[in-house]
Amino acid sequence: MDSFIVVSLIKTVMVFAVLLTTLAYLQWVERKVIAHIQVRPGPYVVGPHGLLQPLADVVKLLTKEDVRPPFVHKALYLAAPFMAMTLALMSICVIPFGPVIRVGGVSTWMQLTDLNIGVLFVLAISSMGVYGVAFAGWASNNKYALLGGLRSSAQMISYELPMSIAIASPLLLSNTLSLRTLVESQAGSFWHWNVLRGPFPQIFAFVIFLISAFAETNRIPFDLPEAENELVAGYHTEYSSMKFASFFMAEYSNMITVSSMAVLLFLGGWMAPWPVRYGSSIVPTVVFAFAGLIALYHGVHPARRRERYSLPATGIVFLAIAAIFLLPIVQTWLLPLFWFCAKVGAILFAFIWIRGTLPRFRYDQLMGFTWKFLFPAAILNLLVTGFLVAWVS
Amino acid sequence: MDVILFLVFALFAVACAINVVVQTHPIASAISLIGVMASLAVLYLLLGAEFIAAAQVIVYAGAIMVLFVFVIMLLNAGAESKSGRSLVAQALGVPSLVALLGILAFFVQRLFPRESATHFGGFTGGTAKAVGKALFTTYLLPFEATSILILIAIVGAIVLAYKEMD
Amino acid sequence: MAAVPISWFLTLSAVLFVIGAAGFVFRRNIITVFMSIELMLNAVNLSFVTFAYQFKKVDGHLLALFVMVVAAAEAAVGLAIILTVFKRRPSLNIDEVNSMKN
């Protein structure tokens, strides 16, 4: 019992430390990727390649004046960012990152807690997430903010339906609501993943889930609640300093949650794409070694003067990571973690990529799209899946 | 532990429920009602109804109350004026409601003696599997009936809202 | 580990129901009246789930589920009616909604 509490505390601290760091650096990655899509360098001044930019942003946001407009509904205005943030961070509790690990005689799951109704828990928390935005818009007492809040609540209710139905069809294949068992049912190779698994590959459900996820997290092309050229900044117009930052962090945290859900439901969670006997365990080593060698090569032929030292150093770090992945002791827990992070990272990259590529929808197009296309498509997909699953078994 | 959890969430639910009725501004009432629903979800978990607890949060707190908040925001509803309250309703209502509560409490105490106690994990039949099985076998007819009801409600809501547009 | 008597849950349910009924009777704002109805439905649901525990049967959960579904349908139609009524007379006081036509 005591060791359970200690282990849980350690896991909680680790998960939240990693999560908050990822939140900060996800923004850096986003700015960099968007910048490269638009052929410009992006953040470059603070630290090498702007790597210390998130830190500078945190300092900036913390030290900025916290303006509280006189006309707001005080209690709700203060509570809204807190609600948004709390609800966004809560779903990470049930997300499993890997299988059982043994550290010094204590074996534990790489997951904070496993619920029998894990999928429903995430759905419930994400359906509550709309309140932060809606109350922020209402309490600001500002017409742009109110419009943003209204748009957000209508949009999130509408897109929750296709999302829930898209989630239901892989559940039919895996026959469980616990996220851990869900991943275990997809073990083996990539054709056992729900996105490709028979009797009916869930590729459509995956696409529908991703599209709804974009709308649920208020991302471009569905970022109507904060459309800056029509609504100033939407629901967070009146927020400044850390309150503004918490909305930002909530958005990024929601992005991480839905990406993890997509990976767990459709892409086999922490499972490797092909079995170890065909050499899936050396993939991380190859990837990191390749990256390290490229960095070393460019370090030997530096384009700029200061890269003479920074690039070889980076290359050596990457080679060291590649070597660590070869150690059998750490492989048991590092490999699943690598696959999980790689898959989540790929989906997060798609989020950013689409932000850099697509324009924003019009509001009536947004609502028409979900009710007239996405929702019927999701139902059709669920019907076909249910029929085939019943027919096969 | 059970008793502490029950007392905390029961008191929270009652406080929020009173707040729903006392607050003059609809949005404050709505927030309090969300509080009631969330604490009831915890009590459902204590009673081993995990699926119902999740459905409570998803359907009530996540969908119905969002609709309420949406409508309150859309109508920009202000605080209620105190003038229109009926004295007759209060004169008759308060005693009869207190009497109703008394009768209910009396029968509850009478019919369920203190020995019949609950403890967490005492009933594990509330899983999604059990609920789903009962839903599609024993309760198939009510299930179909409610789905038709929902369909009618959707069509009705659209008709009502559509008329408003012209 | 002390156990919670069944009667506590049922008493809580009764208290919530009576508070909801009080809101239904005393309040004049149509949206608050509507929310009081939801509160009463919630109280009834708590009773259903408690009885499911008492008799160790899942049937109570099903009834609670049906109540939720009906509540959702009711909320959709009711709020649409409120919107339509508000369009006609800009007041949410139920006492002023007393004629079929203007």
CATH uppermost class of the largest domain in chain B: Mainly Alpha
Number of strands of chain A: 2
> Quick one: how many beta strands of chain B?
1
Helix content of chain B: over 70%
**Domains of chain B, number:** 2
Supply the helix-strand structural class of chain A: mainly alpha
Oligomer: heterotrimer
Strand content of chain A: under 5%
What's the helix count of chain A? 14
Which spans of chain B of ≥5 residues are poorly predicted at pLDDT below 50?
none
Note the overall shape of chain A: globular
| Main pleated sheet of chain B | none
Tally the helices of chain B.
6
Q: Approximately what portion of the residues of chain B adopt beta-strand conformation?
A: under 5%
Give the CA-based shape of chain B.
globular
Rounded Rg of chain A: 22 Å
Q: Give the N-to-C terminal Cα separation of chain B.
A: 58 Å
User: What order do the SSEs of chain B take from the amino end to the carboxyl end, as H and E?
Assistant: HHHHEHH
- Provide the low-confidence segments of chain A as ranges: none
Largest interface by Cβ-Cβ < 8 Å = B-C, 85 and 72 residues
What does this structure look like?
The complex is a heterotrimer of chains A (393), B (166) and C (102). Chain A is an all-alpha fold. Chain A has a domain at 67-271 and 327-392. Chain A has helices spanning 2-37, 53-63, 74-90, 118-128, 130-139, 143-174, 179-184, 203-216, 228-231, 241-266, 283-300, 307-324, 328-357, 363-392, and strands at 98-103, 106-110. The radius of gyration of chain A is 22 Å and the shape is globular. The relative contact order of chain A is 0.13. By secondary structure, chain B is mainly alpha-helical. Chain B has two domains: 2-80 and 87-122, Four Helix Bundle (Hemerythrin (Met), subunit A), CATH 1.20.120; 127-166. Helix content of chain B is 77%, strand content 1%. Chain B has six helices and one strand, in the order ααααβαα. Chain B is globular. Chain B starts with a helix and ends with a helix. With 102 residues, chain C is mostly helical. Chain C has three helices and one strand. In chain C, helix 1 (6-26) runs antiparallel to helix 2 and helix 2 packs antiparallel against helix 3. Classes of the chains: A mainly alpha (393), B mainly alpha (166), C mainly alpha (102). Chains in contact: A-B, B-C. At the B-C interface, helix 1, helix 2, helix 3, helix 4 and strand 1 of B face strand 1, helix 1, helix 2 and helix 3 of C.
